Amino acid sequence: MKPTYYITTPIYYPSNKLHIGNAYTTIACDAMARFKRLQGYDVYYLTGTDEHGQKLQERAAEDGKQPLEFIDPVVDWIKDLWNKLDISYDDFIRTTQPRHKDVVQKVFQRLLDQGDIYLGEYEGYYCVPDEAFWTETQCKTDKGYICPDCGREVKKVKEKNYFFRMSKYQDRLLQHIEANPEFIQPESRRNEMINNFLKPGLQDLSVSRSTFDWGIKVPSDPEHVIYVWIDALTNYISALGYLSDDDSKYRRFWPANIHMVGKDILRFHTIYWPILLMALDVPLPKQIFGHGWLLMPDGKMSKSKGNVIDPKLLIDRYGSDGVRYFLLREINFGQDGIFTPESFVQRLNYDLANDIGNLLSRTATMIEKYFDGVVPAAEDAGEPDDSLISLAQKTKGLVEEHMEEMRFSNALAHIWELVGRTNKYIDETMPWNLAKSEETKGRLATVMYNLAESIRISSVLIQPFMTKAPAKIWDQLGILGNAEATSWESAGVWGGLPAGSTVSRKELLFPRLDVQAELAFIDESTAEARRQAEENKKKQDALKGEPAVSETTANQPEATQAEKPADAKDEIGIDDFGKVELRVAQVVECAKHPNADKLLILQLDLGYEKRQVVSGIAKYYTPEDMVGKKVILVANLKPVKLRGEMSQGMILAASAGDQLTLATVDEGMPNGAIVK
Ligand code: MSP
Q1: This prediction's pTM
Q2: How are the residues of the chain apportioned to helix, strand and coil, as percentages rounded to the nearest 5?
Q3: Each residue of 632-652: pLDDT tens digit?
Q4: 18: helix, strand or coil
Q5: Is 150 annotated as a binding residue?
Q6: Could you say which architecture CATH assigns to the domain 577-675?
Q7: Which of 191, 476, 480, 634 is the most buried (most CB within 10 A)?
């Protein structure tokens, strides 16, 4: 029997259309689900929508609609988005479906019967956008009562409520988290959950509301609806048929291998959810991974700022592969990352159009021209063939290693290293020269085979990340439908491409984009959102007679600390910092880069060795300024080629807006000295 793998996304509030930040989680889960399927797992991938709660009821009322009348079209829009992005989910759960409601009611009743839930009175504060309870001490500030998570106003509530005895399970949960380091990932967030929430002690949680009615009713007391987070979290087992007539999926797939969630909702998943499961005597999920946020240059995406980007707009213009590739490549999954239109267009141009697109088209053209479109057999071996082959053979293992740890960006970087190596192989072997003489025809055959084979391996490996490009590449290589040559296993074995395959050059895999035109397009596409944000703000100000402080309808919390810069990074431990090797280096020579106005080429003396570094500082320093300076070098950075010149490290500089100053040290400090 195949091993199983159960993966879930959070279920989204259908209070607004989703933005690329939400799409990011779903794409990441999809890459993981596809990767596991390729590896032979029996995968179950769940996503869905979280449709109850006060926020949704209020949002629908604003539009003069009944909740479902408002929600249904949004859910259709979301499903269409997943369709456009080729999200391979196995089930889409809606919390308004009877199959879910039924399980939630049974769960609630069971906990009530066994005394884990009791009736009491709640007096405290409630954040409607986050659907979260807070105590007075947690949310009292000089500016009033503010949600510590999202920074918006909270409402004071006093209600007769049902409570869940969270404190009863607190020690067991702490023990579980401590004994299972992989349970909460990444590590830094695990510590945050332990220190900020568990160690200070848990209060009993209010698990019903009686001041609105858009929710699942408490079966024995229908005046109350079940707290939306209890309702929502249960989706992960109700979708599998837990406590239903057919619980075969539950038995097959539970416990989940991974719940992937944003860092803002990690608390609900690592505290409320496991405690609920413990009380039900259900095994805990194996891992909960809290990923970072996708930010805009001016901070978190938010309707009130008008900086949200509609993913459909990007997909329609640039294709789903481009959007999927960008998000998975650009951002380190555990950390926050910034979407800038510039980096988006550049990645599409450099990585997709140039690196892989061009490689395929050049190779297909040459095989058509020199071998009538038939892939020749390799006739000899040697260098640089061997180094290309050995890199290709080890790439699959590296990709797998990173995927296991959700390091999508690193996995892609390894595939692109192979793509880059293959491009370099063309420069090294110069096939156009080999084609000039009959004597070198055998060598030319080897080169052509190696190029096509290396592309085949790359195309098999990109399958978890991109869904359309692999088949297009196989079509051009003549192996579309060849299960063996396109299987995941075959990516680890050199020689899977059958000689004799017919190559046919088709349209470009990824068209090259005009940077200025595309930047203007993306800017224009957010203009409407910005206009609307301004209008809404004016309306709210007018209603209140003062500037608005809350935005109850947005599904996006603003960052709590408004003063924190948009590019602020997650906290790291000293061990992470210790991985960076910083050393004093002296500039001994410096020249302008022959092909790039912005770059200088520096020769550095590290005391124990010499290094060449290419640096983008030509606008601020002349080569003459640089000679003699003692700078700080990131000495263990992987070398890269920048515009054809090798750069073995990076020098540090402070920059703000249009200013830049190099970080330098006193002359007396010896070259090679460690900076820490
Ligand atoms: N309905 C709850 C989840 C219940 S799961 C049992 C919810 N919904 S949400 O629609 O507000 O958010 C869904 C997910 O989107 C969360 O994981 C959240 O972290 C994520 N993101 C929201 N904005 C995001 C970014 N800007 N970037 C990355 N993830 C983003 O919370």
Answers
A1: 0.79
A2: 45, 20, 35
A3: 999 988 888 788 888 899 999
A4: coil
A5: yes
A6: Beta Barrel (2.40)
A7: 476
